[in-house]
Specification:
- Strands 1, 2, 3, 5, 6, 7, 9 and 10 form an 8-stranded mixed sheet that branches. A 4-stranded antiparallel sheet has the order 4-8-12-11, with no helix packed on it.
- Helices cover about 35% and strands about 30% of the residues.
- The chain is an alpha+beta fold.
- Strand 11 and strand 12 form a beta hairpin.
- It has 6 helices and 12 strands.
Length: about 350
């Protein structure tokens, strides 16, 4: 009995092993029969690249993002800013719906024709972004381009060197009116670089707006996107490079008030030396100051310092006239009075200029 049961168990085991072997072979055969998943085919439909999406419908909404990667220089004399920028455009093209994840060359699809309305000398760095358009869900297209170079920006300098400026960059379309294309800000693609390579300025922020505005050169309205970069000038350099030396020259001219009245020749010579020193200092500083058709705060400070030095020379001449006319006591009182008046005039004049 025992031998018969053992033989029966071995038979059942062999049958189970054979059954499992057949199942395994069947599964492998099915895997071999199954076809591999097909890769996404990025094939453009037939479309006119010069025709916007839904040409007969409402205006195409184009989102614009303005990224400031770096600011390299702010030129006050030529009224321009040099930087590294990235511009992002995003719009919906229903004709490309279903091609999510595909990328196409810019020339193969419709791309909004927008331009920078400021005068500029920018170079497109196409090697970085390959000049391609990326397709997202629902036919959402994104196009990015990086530029580097100079952009003209008018910024008034009446308060130089204690000024704060707003540099505006205006983007719009020359050909398409607001009935065909409307620009709107794209906050998620608008940014400032973490470390900006600009000396003498403190960048305070970047704001973007969009509005329909009249363009005098076209005599038409256009939808304009404007990015405004705020910056404050760091005046420390000008305080120690211009104001402090100029202050010392003015104070040097006040030494005439402590020279005895009968030494008026020495007073005149000291005043003339102060004036020549101030003129030489102004000539050496001319390259640091912008040449404008109006007075800046720095110009007013220099002009008032020059007037005070001239008045010190005039006081020395008046002292000489009084001494020669036998009124030396009056000349001495005049010098003592000027010791207080001139510092007060300097404080008042410079305070008014900087207000």
């Amino acid at each position: 009995m025992f031998h018969h049961a053992l033989a029966a168990g071995r038979g059942i085991t062999r049958c189970l092993a054979l059954f499992l072997l057949v199942l395994s072979a069947s599964a492998q055969a099915q895997e071999q029969v199954q076809e591999p998943p097909q890769a996404r085919v990025c094939e453009l439909p037939a479309l006119q690249t010069n025709e916007r999406p839904l040409a007969d419908g409402p205006a195409t909404e184009v989102q614009v993002g303005w990224g400031v990667i770096d600011i390299l220089d702010i030129d006050d004399i030529n009224q321009q800013i040099e930087g590294d920028f990235i511009v992002t455009l995003s719009w919906v093209d229903p004709r490309l719906e279903g091609l999510e994840g595909c990328r196409f060359q810019r020339s193969r699809v419709w791309v909004p024709e927008v331009t920078l309305f400021n005068s500029f000398a920018l170079t497109a760095r196409r090697t970085n972004l390959l000049d391609q358009v990326a397709v997202g869900p629902g036919g959402q297209l994104i196009y990015q381009q990086r530029y580097r170079g100079h952009i003209s920006t008018y910024h008034p300098l009446q308060d130089f060197p204690f000024d704060a400026q707003t540099f505006a960059f205006r983007v719009g379309s020359v050909e398409s009116g607001p009935d065909q294309m409307v620009l709107v800000p794209m906050p998620e693609r608008t940014f400032l670089g973490r470390r900006l390579n600009i000396e003498g300025w403190r960048i305070t922020g970047l704001e973007t707006t969009a509005a329909i505005e009249p363009i005098p050169a076209l005599n038409e309205n256009r939808s304009l996107f404007t990015a405004r970069l705020g910056a404050e000038r760091v005046a420390t350099y000008y305080v120690f490079k211009i104001m402090l030396p100029m202050l010392l020259i003015v104070v040097m001219s006040w030494a005439v008030f402590w020279v005895p009245a009968h030494r008026y020749e020495f007073q005149i010579g000291l005043g003339a030396t102060s004036m020549l020193t101030l003129i030489a200092f102004q000539l050496s500083m001319s390259t640091y100051l912008p040449r404008l058709g109006y007075f800046t705060t720095a110009d007013q400070l220099i002009a008032w310092a020059t007037v005070l030095v001239f008045l010190a020379i005039f006081n020395a001449v008046a002292t000489g006239v009084l001494v020669n006319s036998g009124r030396e006591a009056v000349a001495a009182r005049l010098d003592r009075l000027c010791r207080w008046i001139f510092p007060l005039l300097l404080v008042i004049g410079w305070s008014v200029a900087m207000l």
